Amino acid sequence: MSYPSMIDSSGRTLGTEEVEAVTRVLQSGMLSAVWGREVRALEREMADLHGVSHAVACSSGTAALHLAVAAVAPDPGDEIITSPISDFGTVAPILAQNAVPVFADVDPDTGNLDPAAVAAAIGPRTRAILGVHLFGAPATGLREVADAAGLPLIEDCAQAWLTRYPDDRLAGTVGTIGCFSLQQWKHITCGDGGLTITDDAALARRMRLFADKGWPREGGVRRHESLGLNYRMTELAGAVARAQLTKLPGVLADRRRTARRLSAALADLPGVRVPADPDRHAWWLFPVVLDPPLTNHEVAAALARAGVPARAGYLDEPLHCAPALVDAPTYGGSRYPMTVPPADRLPTLGWGTRPNAERLITQTLLVIDWNERYTDTHVDQIARAVRAAVTG
């Protein structure tokens, strides 16, 4: 059996609405968001969807995180606490702002940051906490830690469109800034694109300036008020994203329905644990945590033989073990800013330092590809394959 994939139209919701949106922009002759209408409309619609005051569009999810990190304004050598299980796009903006990523360990069941580990990692140079809603599971407890320490919380919602916290607040609205991705593999897409949301007008202005070379575009004066890059979204991407945004509730409803079905089918299977609250999870992927003696590599191999798109560990190595952080130079031949803190605050990196994250990657975490085009037949086939892989 073949499974729908987000790499092509079989697993995407792209259709006539997106074609009409692109045609509308092309016929207008205005493809730049500086003078166009589509991106500004997308920002309003994104803010309204989340019940916040401001949204800022940009060119990628990584760019969205960079806007957020730049807005909270770490000084060189300041620290930002984040997760060792995420895309490198979560960490690159920290380094780009000459700040130091500090990795706290994660919850062994969800892969999200452990609030107690985050609290223990806070030091005199901590400037912010950057939490990741891994696979679409809400990263709970971080707001309380941030508030207790007087720190801003940045939410990486790239995998967590319409994820809900236990109190039903949407992911991205609990932190100081929420960051979203519109990359090809995300719930909705314009190929590449990003959005940030916030209720803080000053932070929104900083992010908008940073995305446009520090140029406020006000009053017709060409004045660059602050350091910024060109992270502007195009009108073509904005128009496609607007069409996709209208489909988002349906995308989540379909993913959650089939995820509930697979969760129920695996509920009595010993050694297999799935997320506990399918109606708040966003199901970017379907994560499974295995208990010994099961191992993720063995089960993933058995699923691959059965044709099920599944992988062991999600990453080949957690971020605190990535060569780019452990020993590679960052700027020129220098490892700055990783060498900036005093000796007693140099970040501890490498294997053996974050045991929960390392165990998930190497032994216990299995991820199954997921999208809104899965049918009950797909789900039932996956359930049978998982049962066969686990029970032999």
From TrEMBL:
A GO molecular function held by the record: transaminase activity
The protein, known as: dTDP-4-amino-4,6-dideoxygalactose transaminase
Pfam families reported for this sequence: DegT_DnrJ_EryC1 (PF01041)
Keyword Transport attached: no
Keywords: Pyridoxal phosphate
Species of the source: Plantactinospora soyae
Organism lineage: Bacteria, Bacillati, Actinomycetota, Actinomycetes, Micromonosporales
Any single GO BP term: polysaccharide biosynthetic process
Residue numbers bearing the N6-(pyridoxal phosphate)lysine modification: K186
Keyword Signal part of the UniProt annotation: no
The organism's place on the tree of life at top rank: Bacteria
Active site as annotated: K186 (proton acceptor)
Names of required cofactors: pyridoxal 5'-phosphate
Homology family: Belongs to the DegT/DnrJ/EryC1 family.
